[in-house]
Write a structure and sequence with these properties.
By secondary structure, the chain is of the alpha+beta class. Helices cover about 35% and strands about 35% of the residues. The protein has a domain of about 120 residues: Gcn5-related N-acetyltransferase (GNAT) (Aminopeptidase, 3-Layer(aba) Sandwich). Strands 1-2-3-4-5-7-6 form a seven-stranded mixed β-sheet, with helices on both faces. The protein starts with a strand and ends with a strand. Bound molecules: coenzyme A (COA). Coenzyme A (COA) binds next to α1, β4, α4 and α5.
Length: about 170
Amino acid sequence: MDVQYRSAALKDVPAIREVGIATWWATYSGLLAPQAIAAVLRRGWRDEVIRGQINHDAYHVLVAEVEEEVTGVLFARLPQVQAPAMIERLYVRPDAQGHGLGYGLWRTLVERLPQAVQAVELDVLASNAKAIAFYQRIGFVEASRFVESVAGFPMHLIYMRASRPFV
Ligand SMILES: CC(C)(COP(=O)(O)OP(=O)(O)OC[C@H]1O[C@@H](n2cnc3c(N)ncnc32)[C@H](O)[C@@H]1OP(=O)(O)O)[C@@H](O)C(=O)NCCC(=O)NCCS
């Protein structure tokens, strides 16, 4: 599979939103209430939010393109001082999962991290076993657990951390 990894541009916003919508429904139907999924997509995957993060100095927004089509996305927030970076979203379209795109996005982020960043953190739904297995394979370990309320529904999350040297 011919995959290009690059920084997102403003022209990618609609395609990034489509990846988010398709992958959220496929991943979380059965794990989260439909109202919670709809609320996250409405709030977090709006064009203005995606555009704002692409334009923001503190963010790396990366895309994986397969045959010139945005197929995977990674959003990471970089710290202002020496602190961990935070992966806020990592989504690969359902029909393209398991072909190395998630790993490729992760490695693209790692190559761009300033040396001062010693660790990367993220949170993942505790029932999302596939994603947890993927993160463990690339060196993330559980740091803590917490519960967040989304649209009135509890979301059980695991906070994970990977430290240098990154896999
Ligand atoms: C979790 C997710 C991002 C992983 O991305 P992916 O593209 O499906 O995963 P990959 O194909 O990159 O990784 C799968 C395997 O290849 C490995 N791999 C892939 N390319 C590799 C490479 N070049 N070198 C070494 N290992 C590699 C991975 O470590 C992993 O190991 P495995 O063979 O034991 O399965 C993706 O499945 C996804 O979007 N899932 C649904 C949404 C989701 O849950 N996102 C996370 C929210 S917190």
